[in-house]
């Protein structure tokens, strides 16, 4: 097709091209309008969502502020209740101390002399065992450090005869308030003494030789130059009985624990008392106690020396004495005295305790759990023991 023919067609094609351009522009305008409308809707929705979010945030902040105020009010009420409970406990303790059960603290001199004479007559007699227990300590196989509580010297224990899980804590060597935790968990978790119940004793204790046995607390009271064993009922908070210990001129029973004159211990056979006198000031003495009447059933002179001794306990009728040095080292059971004569002291194994902090101020054997509750320079420790028969030693 020649050029002249193209020129003839241009006037015919121009209107069609203009119509297409017009349609294209209209299409673009429609698409732009739709986009602008959608953007406008998005702005409206975004603004509405922002307003709703701001309103929700303000609502939550208001609720949090109200909850904080309620929490502060509840905490103030709880603290007020704790103060009132502490005041009530002090008032109850005061009333109990003002009206205690009348203990027999005044001892007839004739009765005292007769008791001492009877005890001396029974010294070193053959002991008749009450049970078939014939175990001794093979080793201390584990230790568990619970926490650090109170002063460097003290005592903590469970009831050696009952099934109670309560923890009894005696802080210090001269005090009159016993802390009671309902279980081991509470004693481990809570460091504040206000979490524990308090038992205020009618007389202060001395040393760390006390014992909880079958719902009663047996603790030592010093009165002048003599020492009393006080039997205190933990349920009704009264003194059931008391007895002057029938030993003359007593001296500290452990060379490394000068505040302890009598160590009351429990084992599978019952109650025992470990003590020392000037008559044989080098070695310890052992006595079997009647838990009901506090009478001395039998007494023994032992070959176990007081020097460098830090504590002792009885297992299956055998006295185990733990020794250390003035400069703390590893504690060890170095002397064993068996009242039944089954195990000679020279045949006993030398048992070492795991390395610890300082010196044990108390060692309480639990015959029910076969473990020892120890107080070591303010740390409360549980020693678990492995046992074996005495004849196998």
UniProtKB/TrEMBL annotation:
Record's InterPro entries? Olfac-like_dom (IPR003112), Olfactomedin-like_domain (IPR050605)
Q: Where in the cell is it found?
A: Secreted
Q: What keywords sit in the KW lines?
A: Coiled coil, Developmental protein, Disulfide bond, Glycoprotein, Secreted, Signal
Q: Which GO terms describe its biological process?
A: signal transduction
Residue intervals of the Olfactomedin-like domain: 132-389
Q: Which residues form the signal peptide?
A: 1-19
Source taxon at top rank = Eukaryota
Pfam families listed in its UniProt record: OLF
- Report the main location listed first in the record: secreted
List where this protein forms a coiled coil. 25-98
What GO terms fall under cellular component here? Answer: extracellular space
User: What is the similarity comment for this entry?
Assistant: Belongs to the OLFML3 family.
Record's protein name:
OLFL3 protein
The lineage is:
Eukaryota, Metazoa, Chordata, Craniata, Vertebrata
